[in-house]
Structures are given as structure tokens and as C-alpha cells.
């Protein structure tokens, strides 16, 4: 791609990401409504889709208030951090053959790095608010994300071993003979769980935990700064979903339809699955979440890693011996 | 009727006479047949101690301002009275101990060392009447704001805003009020730090998504672990008991609806039955069955709200919508029958307001036919969910003994394995004609409290079905001069009927002098109204004993050492509404 094309494409991805996140707020509410025996927003525009615009308008016109007791600079910076980190994460996502902003050799590591950066946003937001609920939320998120970060990274190593690359394009292309969701089902499971934990959505919304901590880390936030947190959360949801598709469901690969469409359909299905999880599962307790992570997720990941390593070694040994 | 009931109760009176001699007692005959004894102040603590093993539950403790009461025949002189209502499960009887106080010596020793749940009750009596309880560790105001002047249930305290200066809140006053609400741990015997930790004090409420109304708990936290908690109530206090003294016997009925606002007409039941006892009114069978059916429908409705919000409070998002949709169907039936939804105020002294409408059978049948399958579905969705079970099992346990000591009634008591239900054990209002089970739990934890309530929904459906299949014919209200005005057509014929009609609808009936309590198994536990009539058209004293009040008092006991998330589970599993606590 030429420079101009790259800039254009980057803008498309940025706007698509933000627009997708905005539409997702509406879609999630509609879908939850259907599952919960009610309507959801259905009044404004066709199927209520204009609700998105109305919400945006409302949030934009809200008073941009910083509590006098908060640490002002950090308080304002925190919500932007999550949006920036998530947006940057999209840079390495291969939407189709050649449709990638940066074809990076360490694309996967870059993605993991960006999702880790998002933790700062929640943590700083919680600390800067100078509010007890926000503080508890921030602490919870620090503990939760630090632990789940570990399994998130490790769970992907199986994929890396099988494809032999950190490059996301190569990973997708190597799935031409079979998606990794079959051979790496343990990795998929762990990555999905830690993905929800990373994007702190129900059932793992402990930093927020409305019923315990009112609104957790963003208790003091309102208006656009609150909207930024929300935007970050939905961007995270889309990013994690597209990574699941890229790493485990063959990315853009698929017959008949154009690759980008395949990518879109797959990502959409994964997103709907995340929304379904939100509708169905209660929230575990903080310490239960931690012990789930360290006592079940970590051993599972390690077993996956060892078995995959052994199989990969055996396979390469078999083929290498022949060569 | 009264005489026989009084005779049955003489056992306990004889035991007391034997132990303390007859001189220190004076027996009062009450319309409800509960043994009522006036005890001399020096002896009353010994008497209560003697009664504790026999009557293990302090069911209620309240005050009466006797200063302007006219009809007090057979009662010792008193300016104020403190009443201790004790309940025995094994003997299945109650006893009321009254202590007379003469001004200026309106002071009694506390009985917290005998019954721990006396703590809040004594605070309430102090708050409302200014009766001092010596030895009480924190005799602060409990329902009124800390800055309040006067004691509201005294007869000389204004009952209406129009009898007081217009209210205004300037900045200075607002500062004072806010400062008065500041939580000072030292007042509650809490340390601000120990050797290695500085505790965090978290103000949970009065506005918090999970406290079900305006309830505040001040938490002493070590990390997320609850070291201690101090519940603070009174934000929903509307002075229902005081209003009872200013409303006619009939016009107080709508106020009762708003006590346990999820229980609807169930609240009316306790009140109107107490009035009926005072006036010896017999209720026709049809009215009885209609009342039971409506009460059970409201029990289902209240438990559905509980079920949904419980699941929501442990972080499950969806169930509450299903349960509210069911409740909405139920309200459709309630609306068709009564015209109201949450607060129909539909029971009347001596019966109900109207007969059942045409077609009610189909609506009720459709509902009770559909519900069991839906409950099975919810059971799979919520109660069998492993995460929910992990959140609720073993959380917030109390033993049967603790439950009795703290005055826990209803599903919270049955969850500890106590097989006790007033509907079966003291059938009132026609419950003896119905066949139903009393579900009990084993562990007394949050999960069992939930399971018991869900099973109660099924049992209530069973009762409603029996009402549906066996609805008797006949009048829907009693033909008693105190309840039903003479027929309108006849008022134009003779002056006597006209006068009676006019008085009945303008002043309302004058209920005969006396005292009566009716205990009912309300949605959340024992609910009772102790009514005192001085022979007027209004109650002299209306005491409302609500189940949620003692239930909240023991929250600190069961939440110490747990996490904030557990505290939320406990609060959800107790199933209270703040109006039922504060009245």
C-alpha cells in the first residue's frame, strides 16, 4: 500500500472501530433485551439504532466535571489511555490479505502489550478519583489484570509454536489446513476467559461490580470521560473478538465470500457470544476469580503448552528426519 | 371466646405466681387472649430472666404513652408503659409483660444481656418516647435524625407539619445536619487502626445499588474484608405509627400497604384482623378465602422480587427480568380484582372491598398453571448455577439459637431448620382449612434462605389453587354495624339508618375499648399490629412489629470476617424493604 492508502486505511480502521463500538452499545442492549424477555432500545430510528446517536449527543452535552478532590491531570488522562491503547491494538489486526495497517513480525506481542497498557487506565482512574469505591475497584483491576495477563500470554504460545511465528498474518495463513480452535481448544478456552477478564465485562466485571462498588473505578466519572471508558471497553471487546478470530478461527479465511466479510462475520459471532456470556453467568467473588486463575487457568495453560510443544517437536522431528 | 382463651393461658400465669408470688403481678385481659401481666419495676428483670428459657424469643418491645388514655380500668397507674412481647415455639403461646413508669422516673434497666435484639428496640423506645434504658451501650436515636428535638410518639409531640413551624433548611443548618451524620468509629467502640493496619471506613449507602432502598451500613474494612459493620436505619421513617393515631380505623388501611411495600394486601391482613379481634367481628367464609388468596398472590409477588434481585445482587444479570415479567402478570390479576397494583388497600375491617370480578378464575388459573414450569426453568438458570452456589453457600450463616435470640422470623428462621410457620401452627383467618407444606432449610446460610423462599412460592401456588377450587359462595363482607354501613336504599326510609350511615362514613366506627395483637406470617416473617382502642374513632396506639427490623440488626453478626461481595449476598438473601424496617 502507498503512504496515502495507509493513512486512509488507518482512518477507516479508527473510525470503523469507534463506530463499531458505538453500534455495539446498541446491539448489546437489543440482544440482551431479546434474551431477557424485553425490548431494549427500539424507539429511535429503525430498530432503535438511532439510540446510538442520542446517547452520543447526551454524553457530549454533559457537564465536563472533575471532582475537586481528585488528582486532576491523572483523572483526565486515565480514560484516554484505554482508548489509545485499544486503538493502537487494532494496528496489527489482519482484516484480510494485505488489509493490515502494520504487518509486524511481533504483531502478537504488540497486541498483548497494548491490552496490558489498558490496565493503567483503570488503575489510574481508580486512584486519581480519590474515592473509596474507585480505589477498591482500581485495586481489584490491578490484581485481576496482572494475573490474567499471565495466562493470556501463555495461552497463545501454543498457537505461536504451531504456526512458528508471532506475525498475525502468518498465523492466519498457517490455518489454511485447519483452524487452531481444534488443536488449541485449551488455549482458546483460556484466552477467551482471560479476554473477558481483560475487558472487565460481566461476569468478570469486578473492578466495576455495580452491586458491590456502585460503579467501581469509574464512580466519579461522568460525561465524555465516562464515555471514553465505555468506548475503551467496547473497543476492547471488538479487539479481543477479532484476535480470537485471527488466532483460532482462521481470520479472514473462508470460501466464496470476500475475506473481509468472513473476518467481519466471524468477529460478530464471537462478540455475540461474549454478550450471551454477560447475560447468562453470575459474577464470581474476587478471591474466587483469583483462585480460578491461578489454580485452574494456569495449570491448564501449562499442560496445553507442554503437550503442544511435545507434539510440535514430534511432528517436526518426523518431518525433519525425512528432510 | 375470650374467656376460654384466657383460661388456656393461665399456665404461664400460674407458673409466675408460684415463682414470684401474686403481689408483683396484675393481670390484664386483652381481646386477643394473650396473657398480659403488669410487673412491678424492681421485679421485671427477674421475671424476664425466668421467662427466657420458656419464651426464647423477644418478639417485640415497644412503649405506650398512657398520659391521656381515658379507659384504663384494671391497669396500674402509669405515664408510660414498656411492653415486652415474648414468644414460645414449643408451647406455641405468647406472653406480654408490661412495666408501668411514672414521670419523672421514666427509666428502666436494659435487657440486652437477656435478649441481644433488645438493643434496637430499646433505642427505638428511647427515640420515640424518651424512656431511658440504663446500661444500654449506645442509646442513640435510631429512626429520627440525630438532631431531632422531642420524642415523636409522645402524645404532646405534633403529629402533622401544620402543627409545627414551617420547615426551612439554610446553609448553616445543613452543615449541622451533615456533620451529625458523620460516622465516628469511636462511638461504636471501633479502632481506627491496629498494630499493622489502618482500617478503611466505607459508607455503604444510604444510596447504593444493592441496599434495597435507603439503608446505610458503615463498614470497617481491612482490605476488602469486613472487620465490623454498623447498620444505620431511619432514612425511610415516615411515622406510620404516629399516623395510626390520627387516622380513623378504616382510613389507616392504605398506610399499612406501604409498610412492607412488596407485600401489598398482606399488610392489611394483620391490621384488619387486629381490629376485628378488638371489635369481635366475624368474617364470612368467602371473604376469608379471598383474603388468603390475595395474600398468597402477594407472597408470590414479593418472593419473585426477592428471587430476581438476589440473583442480580450476586451478579447475574438476566433472571430479574424474567421474575419481574411474572410479577407483572400477577399484577394484572391483582389489578383486575382490586383496581390497584402494588398498594391496593383492598381489605376492609370485616371483609374485603368488593366481590371478585367475573372471569377471575381464568386469570388466576392461567397464572398458577404456568408458574411451576417457569420456576423449574429459573431453578436451572439461577439456583443450579455453580458460581451462584459458590457465592451463596456457607455465606451469612446463623444457627437456630442465634436466629431465635435475634428475633429472626419467617424464611430466615426456617432456613435454619426451624419448622415454624404461623399459617400452620397458629392458623389465622382460615388457614386451617388449607393443605400445604412448610419448607425448611438446614444450614441457615444465604443459599438456604433463598431455597426456602422459592419452595414457598410453590406452596403458595398450591394454596391459591385450593382457593380457586373451593371458593365459597356468600357475602364478601361481614354484616356488622361497625364494618358495613346500613344499605343505602334504606337510609331514605328511616332516620336511625340514616344517622348510622352518616356516622359510619364520616367519623368512621368507634371500636370498643381494648388491646389486641394479631400475628401473621407475612412475606418476610412475623408481622403484627398491636392496637389499643380508647373507645374512639381512631386508634390510641398503633404498634407495628415488622420482621425486617430485627433482621437488619443482626447483619454485623453474620458478616464479620467476610468480603464486601459476601455482605451484598447477605443483604440480598435477607429480603428486606426499608419501609418495613423504618415504618
Description of the structure:
The complex is a heterodimer of chains A (323) and B (583). Chain A has 323 residues and is mainly α. Chain A has one domain. Chain A contains 13 helices and no strands. The model of chain A has no long low-confidence stretch (mean pLDDT 84). Chain B is of the alpha+beta class. Chain B is built from 22 helices and 15 strands. Chain B has a 5-stranded mixed β-sheet with strand order 1-2-5-4-3. A 3-stranded antiparallel β-sheet of chain B has the order 8-9-10. Chain B has a 3-stranded antiparallel β-sheet with strand order 13-14-15. In chain B, helix 9 packs antiparallel against helix 10, helix 9 (285-313) packs antiparallel against helix 21 (564-574) and helix 16 packs parallel to helix 21 (564-574). Classes of the chains: A mainly alpha (323), B alpha+beta (583). Chains A and B meet through helix 5, helix 10, helix 12 and helix 13 of A and strand 8, helix 9, helix 10, helix 12 and helix 21 of B.
What layout of secondary structure does this protein have?
The complex is a heterodimer of chains A (323) and B (583).
Chain A (H helix, E strand, L loop, with lengths): L2 H33 L15 H10 L11 H18 L17 H22 L3 H24 L1 H7 L4 H6 L6 H4 L1 H14 L11 H4 L9 H26 L10 H22 L5 H37 L1
Chain B lengths: L1 H7 L1 H11 L4 E4 L6 E5 L4 H8 L5 E9 L14 E9 L4 E9 L5 E3 L8 H12 L2 E3 L36 H10 L19 E5 L11 E7 L2 E8 L7 H5 L8 H5 L7 H15 L5 H29 L5 H20 L8 E2 L2 E2 L7 H24 L2 H7 L7 H6 L5 H4 L7 H4 L20 H24 L18 H4 L3 H12 L7 E9 L2 E9 L5 E7 L2 H6 L1 H5 L4 H11 L3 H5 L1
Parallel strand pairs in B: 2-5, 6-7
Antiparallel strand pairs in B: 1-2, 3-4, 4-5, 8-9, 9-10, 11-12, 13-14, 14-15
How is this structure best summarized?
The complex is a heterodimer of chains A (323) and B (583). With 323 residues, chain A is mostly helical. Chain A has 13 helices and no strands.
Q: How much of the residues of chain B is beta strand, in percent?
A: 15-25%
Structural class computed from helices and strand pairing of chain A: mainly alpha
Helix content of chain A: over 70%
Tell me what portion of residues of chain A adopts beta-strand conformation.
under 5%
C-alpha termini separation of chain A: 37 Å
Major β-sheet profile of chain A = none
Distance from first to last alpha carbon of chain B: 33 Å
Read across the widest sheet of chain B, the strand sequence of neighbours is 1-2-5-4-3
Instruction: Give the total of domains of chain B.
Output: 2
Could you say how many structural domains of chain A there are in total?
1
Number of helices of chain A: 13
Shape of chain A: globular
Average pLDDT level of chain A: 84
The average pLDDT of chain B is 87
Q: Give the total of beta strands of chain B.
A: 15
Largest interface: A-B, 28 and 29 residues
Which percent range fits the helix content of chain B? 40-55%
Amino acid at each position: 500500500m502507498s503512504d496515502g492508502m495507509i493513512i486512509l486505511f488507518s482512518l477507516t480502521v479508527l473510525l470503523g472501530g469507534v463506530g463499531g463500538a458505538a453500534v455495539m452499545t446498541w446491539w448489546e442492549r437489543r440482544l440482551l433485551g431479546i434474551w431477557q424477555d424485553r425490548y431494549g432500545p427500539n424507539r429511535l430510528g429503525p430498530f432503535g439504532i438511532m439510540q446510538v446517536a442520542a446517547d452520543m449527543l447526551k454524553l457530549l452535552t454533559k457537564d465536563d466535571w472533575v471532582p475537586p478532590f481528585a488528582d486532576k491531570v491523572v483523572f483526565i488522562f486515565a480514560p484516554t489511555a484505554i482508548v489509545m491503547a485499544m486503538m493502537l491494538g487494532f494496528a496489527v489486526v489482519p482484516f484480510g490479505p494485505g488489509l493490515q495497517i502494520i504487518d509486524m513480525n511481533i504483531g502478537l506481542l504488540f497486541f498483548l502489550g497494548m491490552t496490558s497498557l489498558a490496565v493503567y487506565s483503570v488503575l489510574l482512574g481508580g486512584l486519581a478519583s480519590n474515592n473509596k469505591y474507585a480505589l477498591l475497584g482500581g485495586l481489584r483491576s490491578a490484581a485481576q489484570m496482572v494475573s490474567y495477563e499471565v495466562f493470556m500470554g501463555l495461552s497463545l504460545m501454543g498457537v505461536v509454536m504451531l504456526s512458528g511465528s508471532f506475525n498475525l498474518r502468518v498465523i492466519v495463513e498457517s490455518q489454511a489446513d485447519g483452524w487452531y480452535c481444534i488443536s488449541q481448544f485449551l488455549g482458546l478456552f483460556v484466552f477467551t476467559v482471560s479476554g473477558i477478564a481483560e475487558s472487565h465485562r460481566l461476569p468478570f466485571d469486578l473492578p466495576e461490580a455495580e452491586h458491590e462498588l456502585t460503579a467501581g473505578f469509574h464512580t466519579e466519572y461522568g460525561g465524555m470521560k465516562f464515555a471514553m471508558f465505555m468506548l475503551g471497553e467496547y473497543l476492547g471487546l471488538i479487539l479481543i473478538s477479532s484476535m480470537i478470530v485471527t488466532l483460532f478461527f482462521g481470520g479472514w479465511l473462508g470460501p466464496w465470500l470476500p475475506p473481509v466479510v468472513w473476518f467481519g462475520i466471524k468477529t460478530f459471532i464471537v462478540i455475540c457470544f461474549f454478550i450471551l456470556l454477560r447475560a447468562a453467568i453470575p459474577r464470581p467473588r474476587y478471591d474466587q476469580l483469583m483462585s480460578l486463575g491461578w489454580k485452574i487457568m494456569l495449570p491448564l495453560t501449562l499442560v496445553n503448552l507442554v503437550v503442544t510443544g511435545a507434539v510440535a517437536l514430534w511432528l517436526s522431528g518426523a518431518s525433519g528426519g525425512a528432510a | 371466646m375470650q374467656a376460654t382463651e384466657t383460661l388456656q393461658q393461665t399456665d404461664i400465669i400460674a407458673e409466675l405466681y408460684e415463682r414470684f408470688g401474686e403481689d408483683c403481678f396484675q393481670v390484664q385481659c386483652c381481646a386477643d387472649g394473650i396473657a398480659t401481666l403488669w410487673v412491678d419495676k424492681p421485679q421485671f428483670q427477674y421475671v424476664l430472666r425466668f421467662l427466657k428459657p420458656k419464651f426464647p424469643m423477644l418478639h417485640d418491645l415497644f412503649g405506650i404513652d398512657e398520659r391521656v388514655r381515658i379507659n384504663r380500668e384494671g391497669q396500674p397507674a402509669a405515664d408510660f408503659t414498656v411492653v415486652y412481647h415474648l414468644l414460645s415455639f414449643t408451647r406455641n403461646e405468647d406472653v406480654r409483660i408490661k412495666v408501668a413508669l411514672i414521670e419523672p422516673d421514666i427509666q428502666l434497666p436494659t435487657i440486652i444481656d437477656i435478649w441481644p435484639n433488645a438493643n434496637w428496640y430499646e433505642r427505638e423506645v428511647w427515640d420515640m418516647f424518651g424512656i431511658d434504658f440504663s446500661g444500654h451501650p449506645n442509646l442513640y436515636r435510631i429512626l429520627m435524625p440525630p438532631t431531632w428535638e422531642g420524642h415523636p410518639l409522645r402524645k404532646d409531640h405534633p403529629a402533622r407539619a401544620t402543627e409545627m413551624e414551617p420547615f426551612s433548611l439554610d446553609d448553616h443548618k445543613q452543615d449541622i445536619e451533615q456533620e451529625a451524620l458523620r460516622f465516628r468509629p469511636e462511638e461504636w467502640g471501633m479502632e481506627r487502626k491496629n498494630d499493622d493496619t489502618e482500617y478503611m471506613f466505607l459508607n455503604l449507602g444510604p444510596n447504593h445499588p444493592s441496599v434495597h432502598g435507603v439503608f446505610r451500613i458503615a463498614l470497617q474494612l481491612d482490605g476488602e474484608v469486613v472487620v465490623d459493620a454498623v447498620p444505620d436505619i431511619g432514612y425511610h421513617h415516615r411515622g406510620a405509627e404516629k399516623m395510626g393515631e390520627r387516622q380513623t380505623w378504616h382510613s389507616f388501611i392504605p398506610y399499612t400497604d406501604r409498610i412492607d411495600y412488596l407485600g401489598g394486601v398482606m399488610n392489611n391482613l394483620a391490621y384488619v384482623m387486629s381490629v376485628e379481634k378488638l371489635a369481635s367481628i366475624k368474617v364470612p367464609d368467602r371473604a376469608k378465602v379471598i383474603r388468603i388468596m390475595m395474600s398468597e398472590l402477594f407472597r408470590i409477588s414479593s418472593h419473585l422480587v426477592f428471587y430476581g434481585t438476589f440473583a442480580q445482587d450476586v451478579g447475574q444479570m438476566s433472571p430479574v427480568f424474567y421474575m419481574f415479567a411474572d410479577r407483572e402478570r400477577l399484577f394484572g390479576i391483582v389489578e383486575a380484582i382490586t383496581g390497584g397494583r402494588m398498594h391496593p388497600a383492598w381489605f376492609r375491617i370485616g371483609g374485603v372491598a368488593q366481590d371478585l370480578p367475573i372471569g377471575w378464575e381464568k386469570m388466576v388459573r392461567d397464572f398458577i398453571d404456568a408458574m411451576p414450569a417457569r420456576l423449574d426453568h429459573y431453578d436451572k438458570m439461577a439456583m443450579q448455577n455453580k458460581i451462584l452456589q459458590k457465592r451463596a453457600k456457607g455465606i451469612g450463616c446463623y444457627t437456630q439459637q442465634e436466629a431465635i435470640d435475634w428475633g429472626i422470623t419467617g424464611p430466615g428462621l426456617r432456613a435454619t431448620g426451624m419448622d415454624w410457620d404461623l399459617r400452620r401452627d397458629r392458623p389465622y383467618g382460615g388457614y386451617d382449612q388449607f393443605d400445604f407444606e412448610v419448607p425448611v432449610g438446614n444450614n441457615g446460610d444465604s443459599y438456604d434462605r433463598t431455597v426456602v423462599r422459592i419452595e414457598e412460592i410453590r406452596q403458595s401456588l398450591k394454596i391459591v389453587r385450593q382457593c380457586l377450587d373451593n371458593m365459597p359462595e356468600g357475602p364478601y363482607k361481614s354484616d356488622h354495624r361497625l364494618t358495613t354501613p346500613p344499605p343505602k336504599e334504606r337510609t331514605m326510609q328511616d332516620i336511625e339508618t340514616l344517622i348510622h350511615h352518616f356516622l359510619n362514613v364520616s367519623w368512621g366506627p368507634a371500636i370498643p375499648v381494648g388491646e389486641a395483637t394479631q400475628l401473621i406470617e407475612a412475606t418476610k416473617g412475623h408481622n403484627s399490629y398491636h392496637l389499643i382502642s380508647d373507645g374512639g374513632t381512631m386508634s390510641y396506639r398503633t404498634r407495628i412489629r415488622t420482621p425486617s427490623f430485627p433482621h437488619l440488626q443482626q447483619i454485623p453478626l453474620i458478616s464479620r470476617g467476610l468480603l464486601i461481595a459476601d455482605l451484598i449476598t447477605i443483604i440480598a438473601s435477607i429480603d428486606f424493604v426499608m419501609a418495613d424496617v423504618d415504618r
